Amino acid sequence: EFDISDIAITIPYTNGETYTVYQGNLIPYTNDTLNIGIENVDTSVTGTFSVPITVLGKELTFNLDVVEAELVRIEIVSEPTKTEYWELDTLDITGLAVNAVYENGDQQPIPTEKLILSASELKTEGETQIDVTYAGKTTSFTVTVKPVEVTEIRIRQYPTKLEYFAGDYFDLSGFAANILYNNGDLLLIDD
Predict the structure, then answer these.
(1) How far apart are CA 105 and CA 99, in angstroms?
(2) Cα 97 from Cα 120, distance rounded (Å)
(3) Residue 2's pLDDT is what?
(4) C-beta pairs of 78-83 under 8 Å, 24+ apart in sequence
(5) Is it the case that residue 153 has pLDDT exceeding 70?
(6) In sequence order, what are the beta bridge partners of 62?
(7) How many Å apart are CA 100 and CA 176, to the nearest integer?
């Protein structure tokens, strides 16, 4: 919305004096207040516009430049729901909400598909910072990555051949085992 409260008019008088008068203030040597009437100023479109105003019965114009507000930063409104991962898990950004913050104070949500994330596969154990970038601006959040370790090995079936002579080659035929990891993964080993 176009705000005229900061518009000032400099009025020169024939005696050489000049006065700067703001909207709503008393105009020197008159009993009038400065009331600037501006209609049909559309600030939703960028460009330079000639704006007519009437002051003390005189028609004046000034140029109004309407520019796009500059993006000053991005900020995380809500972090992803999932913040703990196992090594090599894929990052899940469900729940992530990020706003673009502009110099005029406006904030707009950024669609997640327009965000660039620094990691999609989590490889390093410990606290991992995930950078979020949009239009050259970056913010971040942190996730925890836990190591994947073997918790149990269960032999389901022993090898078919269990007796050997010195110099025989070991034969794993028929062998089967389960390897259980702390992240719940199960690896089946069959001959």
Answers:
(1) 12
(2) 17
(3) 64
(4) 79/141, 80/141, 80/143, 82/143, 83/142, 83/143, 83/144
(5) yes
(6) 51
(7) 55
Within a 10 A sphere around the Cβ of 57, how many other Cβ atoms?
Answer: 6
- Through-space distance between the first and last CA atoms of the chain, rounded to whole angstroms: 75
The pair of structure tokens assigned to 5 is 């409260």
Q: Are 110 and 134 in contact (CB under 8 A)?
A: yes
Q: Is the pTM of this model over 0.85?
A: no
Q: Which residue has the tokens 């089967």?
A: 176
What is the SS3 assignment for the chain?
CCCCCCCEEEEECCCCCEEEEECCCECCCCCCECCCCCCCCCCCCCEEEEEEEEECCEEEEEEEEECCCCEEEEEEEECCCCCEEECCCECCCCCCEEEEEECCCCEEEECHHHCEECCCECCCCEEEEEEEEECCEEEEEEEEEECCCEEEEEEEECCCCCCCCCCCCCCCCCCEEEEEECCCCEEEEEC
Tokens representing 137? 């601006």
Confidence of residue 112 (pLDDT cuts 50, 70, 90): very high
Which are the contacts of 57, defined by CB distance < 8 A and separation ≥ 6? Answer: none
